[in-house]
């Protein structure tokens, strides 16, 4: 079973290497894959969204070890979530919830198997990495923890359409500065390719041509498109929409066809 890592640790420090060292000490044959270690520090929502976007492309049986853990050392639980096809290991702060619920949760366990010495600030190394390593050896999660019925779940912002206006939210900004919104096929209820969409954010109006792909726009042109994950996205061709317009996840948006 491969182990796929997602953290907000970055690559400057030793944190990711320490986690991999623990895994390989328990299972020297473990296959470890990095999803990303560049989640913004303490940004649980972005971590959850990236995990949700990535997990489904991995083979059945993959163990997802995700650590964005501002509550480390507190009463928050350490979890193993068994889903229809995968295992998810990490803190009980909603980080695992979007992906796990989408795949179908079968059981949730509070991790009790740990290293002999546990720090209060690095459960990625001392709690989550050992649990993932033992799972990769085929050990059942019921032998690593106890079942729990209650755990934290994030709520994905559902878009709605009223009077030809989409009420949505900015949910993610990628490294190109493209702004994902929570709207999806709702865009086709109010416009078609070639139309201009008006995005209202914090009282400002951003006009964007609705196109099929980036290559249909001139350099510097603001566009809207349905991206590879199926979300309506605001982008600047050969530019950065987030920095150009000061957009970030969490902003409420009203999207309509410009008159």
Automatic annotation (TrEMBL):
Q: Which GO terms describe its molecular function?
A: transferase activity
Domain named S-adenosyl-l-methionine hydroxide adenosyltransferase C-terminal is located at 170-251
Return the InterPro entries for the record: SAM_HAT_C, SAM_HAT_N, SAM_OH_AdoTrfase, SAM_OH_AdoTrfase_C_sf, SAM_OH_AdoTrfase_N_sf
On whether S-adenosyl-L-methionine is a keyword of this UniProt record, the answer is yes
Question: Is Acetylation one of the keywords?
Answer: no
- Origin: domain of life: Archaea
**Where is the chain membrane-spanning?**
none
**Domain S-adenosyl-l-methionine hydroxide adenosyltransferase N-terminal: residue ranges:** 3-143
| Keywords from the named record | S-adenosyl-L-methionine, Transferase
Q: Which family does it belong to?
A: Belongs to the SAM hydrolase / SAM-dependent halogenase family.
Mind telling me which PANTHER family this protein's record contains?
A: CHLORINASE MJ1651
What is this protein identified as?
S-adenosyl-l-methionine hydroxide adenosyltransferase family protein
Species annotation? Pyrobaculum aerophilum
């Amino acid at each position: 079973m491969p182990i796929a890592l997602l953290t907000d640790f970055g690559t400057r420090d030793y944190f990711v290497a320490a986690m991999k060292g623990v895994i390989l000490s328990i299972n020297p044959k473990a296959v470890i894959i990095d999803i990303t270690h560049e989640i913004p520090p303490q940004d649980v929502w972005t971590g959850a969204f990236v995990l949700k976007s990535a997990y489904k492309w991995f083979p059945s049986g993959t163990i997802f070890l995700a650590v964005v853990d501002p509550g480390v050392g507190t009463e928050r639980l350490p979890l193993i979530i068994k889903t229809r096809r995968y295992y998810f290991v990490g803190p009980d702060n909603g980080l695992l919830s979007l992906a796990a619920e989408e795949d179908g949760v079968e059981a949730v366990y509070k991790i009790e198997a740990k290293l002999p010495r546990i720090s209060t600030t690095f459960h990625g190394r001392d709690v989550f990495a050992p649990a993932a390593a033992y799972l990769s050896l085929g050990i059942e999660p019921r032998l690593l923890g106890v079942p729990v019925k209650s755990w934290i779940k994030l709520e994905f912002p559902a878009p709605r359409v009223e009077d030809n206006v989409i009420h949505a939210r900015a949910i993610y900004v990628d490294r190109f500065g493209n702004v994902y919104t929570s709207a999806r096929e709702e865009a086709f209820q109010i416009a078609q390719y070639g139309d201009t969409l008006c995005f209202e954010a914090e009282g400002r109006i951003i006009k964007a041509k609705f196109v099929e792909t980036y290559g249909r726009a001139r350099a510097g042109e603001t566009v809207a498109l349905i991206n590879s994950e199926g979300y309506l996205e605001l982008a600047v061709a050969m530019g950065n929409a987030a920095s150009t317009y000061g957009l970030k996840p969490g902003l409420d948006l009203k999207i309509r066809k410009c008159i």
